[in-house]
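Re: that chain you flagged

S.,

Sorry for the slow reply, it's been a week of failed gels. I finally had a moment to sit down with the sequence you sent. For the record, here it is as I used it:
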Amino acid sequence: MTVIPNFTEPARFPPAPFEQRSGVVFVGRLSPEKGVEHVLEAAKLSPDIPFTVAGDGPLADRVTAAAAELGNLDYPGFVENTESRSLLSNARVCVLPSLWNEPGSLVGLEAMAEGTPVISYRRGGLAGYVTDADAGRFSRDESPRGLAEAVASLYSDEPAWNRFSEGGREATASLHPRPVYLDALEAVYASALASGETQPARCGGQTRDA
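Prediction finished late last night. Pasting the structure tokens below so you have them in one place:
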């Protein structure tokens, strides 16, 4: 088996520095497996830190209600990619607490490309991206309180923030650009063609060459 990491487009502008950024952002489908409810609870536990939750999905009404209740939570609804990248590039932290083994988060890579550190749970491909790039921190456990603690620990830690910001940008430039992805994909196809082998395939109870 060959694993080909996802790719992302580079940032259009140089990343804003730590002191020019504010807030925590989540961008994605508003569904339970994405950990959206954990983000809402983390916002409630962090009244002094502004949170933005952007996206659409079955929990949209829940996010709308939370935004009406919490003074530090903004819900702009669904956003197109250009606006999503703008939210990521202006935020100080991106939270992606997926509760399933997400294989390769595009939003995570986009945040890294914008120099925005990622806080997530230790699950799936996203955890690998963050670890390999030294691009963020993990919550101590899969809980809203753990998520809030991780956010608070990074939100005011400028030296760590700068290290994670640089790590994410360097990794997306070297490991996750479109040409690297395409080269890896073509190499897999070339390897399959070079093997020169055919495998019998079953179809309708008969065997034929595939």
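What I noticed first: Confidence is low (pLDDT under 50) at residues 200-210.

Talk soon,
D.
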